[in-house]
Amino acid sequence: MSRQVVRSSKFRHVFGQPAKADQCYEDVRVSQTTWDSGFCAVNPKFVALICEASGGGAFLVLPLGKTGRVDKNVPTVCGHTAPVLDIAWCPHNDNVIASGSEDCTVMVWEIPDGGLVLPMREPVVTLEGHTKRVGIIAWHPTAQNVLLSAGCDNVILVWDVGTGAAVLTLGADVHPDTIYSVDWSRDGALICTSCRDKRVRLIEPRKGTVVAEKDRPHEGTRPVRAVFVSDGKILTTGFSRMSERQVALWDTKQLEEPLSLQELDTSSGVLLPFFDPDTNIVYLCGKGDSSIRYFEITSEAPFLHYLSMFSSKESQRGMGYMPKRGLEVNKCEIARFYKLHERKCEPIAMTVPRKSDLFQEDLYPPTAGPDAALTAEEWLGGRDAGPLLISLKDGYVPSKSRELRVNRGLDTGRRKTAPEASGTPSSDVVSRLEEEVRKLQATVQELQKRLDRLEETVLAK
């Protein structure tokens, strides 16, 4: 009689643990926009989420430790004139965040340490080049100040944020229809895109050439997502012809047949994949779902192994994913998600159960650090490099804010700069506030005089 052998994996018993109520961010008005992005971005310093705003687009930035009920008058980043669709923190500067909006612009903001004191209306850089709304933002993983944006004009632009100029353009001849997703390879040499024309493409952005493409990775008509995973493979999520949700793993050298294809369920939400290159685990979060599935990717067949699923009662409107250097290594936390409810942001920690509280080297190999491996000029010149790795053995301590260097002499007509971007009020803002204070003081004095006269009248009677 043959005995079935259970596959050995240190991640078989990973479990999700939602944060307690006092560790959540309560009373935040999450955006109602129908757009398939995560609506949330986190790093070791801040959590940012796209919120409802009247008369334009805004997103909220909160210091990570500022949990509990959020004041309804908390200042926001509110420079866009139409709803914000996507946000992304710079991997090399924890104070810099980029946003894409329905107003066809990309804006780059510098958040002061400690968070916002006043509403931030003026970005460090405004990047204008798209003719329709911008729904996808992605920073280069290893090159300094290189930012990619994709719009509903079917164009991908690669920007040098330091000069505010679009240095590469992938026009509508590459993508004839709406772009659903864009992902950088680990060294930033290639991008992987999925498109409404039912094709997944591997593109060398500096040459503008399609290296490989796969037609109809999933038979259904709903949107497909594609991300790079380890060893030159890509993972896609989509729908079957019968509208069943699927996840598939592909070898980029042989895209004819998938290495693995699994059907999950019949829900309608698009699955957002998050890949951790340190553990080779991919997490699938569906918008409108109340669960997070996770799979382990290995180098031998069947390549894609289902691990488990975290379930909760309430559905998620969006999801943020913490970089590895922001995790608590002494608690064996291998991933942390920030789940957006309708009025709340809830951290969810993914933990490997271990009895020892010592540093677990097998769970935390050297991971991508905050330093860029290349300058924008070096990458544009043809150089590639993997991320500069750091050890998490003694924990990661966020560095002091790094200044975003922008060459303001170039392209000034297409860039707005203002003192509010640094978080320090300008002299004219201070003078306006002082004038308001003087007016209030005069009003208080006048009210006090009236009160004194009223008291005299009452006493006389």
Give structural notes.
With 461 residues, this protein is mostly beta strands. It has one domain (15-376): Methylamine Dehydrogenase, Chain H (7 Propeller), CATH 2.130.10.10. It is built from two helices and 32 strands. It has helices spanning 376-380, 427-460, and strands spanning 15-18, 25-26, 40-42, 46-51, 57-63, 68-69, 77-80, 84-89, 96-101, 105-110, 125-128, 134-139, 146-151, 156-160, 165-170, 179-184, 191-195, 199-204, 209-215, 225-228, 233-239, 245-251, 260-263, 271-276, 281-286, 291-297, 304-311, 318-321, 333-340, 344-351, 367-368, 389-390. Strands 1, 2, 6, 28, 29 and 30 form a six-stranded mixed beta sheet that branches. The longest helix has 34 residues, at 427-460. The chain is globular, with a radius of gyration of 25 Å. Mean pLDDT is 88; it is low at 408-424.
Structural descriptors:
WD40_repeat_dom_sf; Methylamine Dehydrogenase, Chain H; 461 residues; 37% strand; 4-stranded antiparallel β-sheet; 6-stranded mixed β-sheet; phosphoprotein; mainly beta; 8% helix; globular; Coronin; 32 strands
Number of domains: 1
Integer average pLDDT: 88
Approximate strand percentage = 35-45%
N/C terminus separation: 108 Å
Instruction: Estimate the global geometry from the Cα principal axes.
Output: globular
| CATH H-tier superfamily | YVTN repeat-like/Quinoprotein amine dehydrogenase
Number of strands: 32
- The name CATH uses for the topology is Methylamine Dehydrogenase, Chain H
Determine the structural class based on helices, strands and strand pairing: mainly beta
CATH class annotation: Mainly Beta
- Rounded Rg: 25 Å
What helical percentage do the residues reach?
A: under 10%
Total of helices: 2
* CATH architecture identity: 7 Propeller
Largest sheet: 6 strands, mixed
Uncertain segments are: 408-424
